[in-house]
Amino acid sequence: MSTFEFGGFVSFTLAIILLFIGKAALSRVELLRRYSIPEPVIGGFLCAAAVGVAYYFFDLQVTFTLEVRDWLLLYFFAAIGLRADIRTLISGGKPLAILLGLASSFILLQNLLGISMATLFGLDPKAGLMVGSISLTGGVGTALAWAPTFVDQLGIANALELGVATNTVGLIAACVIGGPIARYLILRHKLAPAGDGQLDIGVGHQEELTTKVDSYGVLWAWLWLNVALIIGYALNEALQAAGLQLPLFVSCLMAGILIGNTRNLLFKRDETYPGSRLGIALISDISLGMFLTMALMGLQLWELQGLLVFIGTVMLFQILLSVLFTVFIVFRTMGKDYEASVISAGFGGITLGSTATAIVNMSAVAKQYGPAHRAFIIVPLVCGFFIDLVNALIINFFVGL
What we know:
Blueprint: E1 2-6, H1 8-28, H2 30-34, H3 39-58, E2 60-64, H4 68-82, H5 86-91, H6 93-120, H7 140-152, H8 159-189, H9 215-241, H10 248-266, H11 276-297, H12 308-333, H13 338-352, H14 355-369, H15 375-399
Parallel strand pairs: 1-2
Helix pairs in contact: 1-3, 1-11, 3-11, 4-9, 4-10, 4-11, 6-12, 6-15, 7-8, 8-12, 8-13, 8-14, 9-10, 9-11, 11-14, 12-13, 13-14, 13-15, 14-15
Keywords: Amino-acid transport, Cell inner membrane, Cell membrane, Ion transport, Membrane, Sodium, Sodium transport, Symport, Transmembrane, Transmembrane helix, Transport
Protein name: Sodium/glutamate symporter
Family: Belongs to the glutamate:Na(+) symporter (ESS) (TC 2.A.27) family.
């Protein structure tokens, strides 16, 4: 087996090309637009498929250097914070608690399903946790963290392979189901957005830019984002010193909320440079698109080898469970309105993929149908902070049985 690794600069450049490919495909294929399939999913998955072909048919393992990916995620969440209105955040308190309760309940169902399927296939029942909330709700980082425990203490030798393979399929599925779910709910219930029409991320497909954005407007936006990242790093270190572990992007989100709302209190409108608010939206759109493109580029589909039947069967039921739970429980419980439909688009990202997947699904829907400000506050908080704590408690409970 030959190996070839693309360096960081080339990998970043390739991600830009793939994002353009996804954009072009979306503009030319009406079916993709109809179901709000995100542009990064198209280009990123094409790259992952090409890398898989090189591995299986040409005996060549292609990898990418993707360190910049993590920076892009920080910029994206800092931008969400800078554009968040504290009044919307306060009004989101009750829906946030409800969504957290729903996601927590789903984790229990997810693990029970995984345990049942593992038992059905004659495996150790606890191996089902690796195809449950550990790798799906928790993501690949949680799978990597728990794998040694399953190997050393529970004797499940292929725990890591199960977790990574399940996360791979879950990430792809989460990217695909969000848009169709939202479209179904919006059309069935004749939903429409309410509010100012200004998107939280990027600009709509049909939106004309009436606000001029010059280079200094973008640079002014970039400055505020960098300030948010600096404060986010400091806040994260302070929280760690106090014994509270948070993902860094959550600290950057909190810093952005603090800076943005403090600025709004001091200055009614930030007109230092024209279009700076739109500049933040565009930078966040680019950051999110590039992050997910690079995340999908890095998928190694050959890790499914040898586990295809088990993983395929489990994931078929996990995806079906996620879709049914979202449509019949999440949407109705969250209010049966347009905001609830956008949250539903992101719920698959919470339960099957990642925080970025949830947001990119919601962003694709918002670009097509209109903004949902509360959704873009409560979903990142549930995904990025609260659900990780709940998931850890539930996993410990099941492992200790």
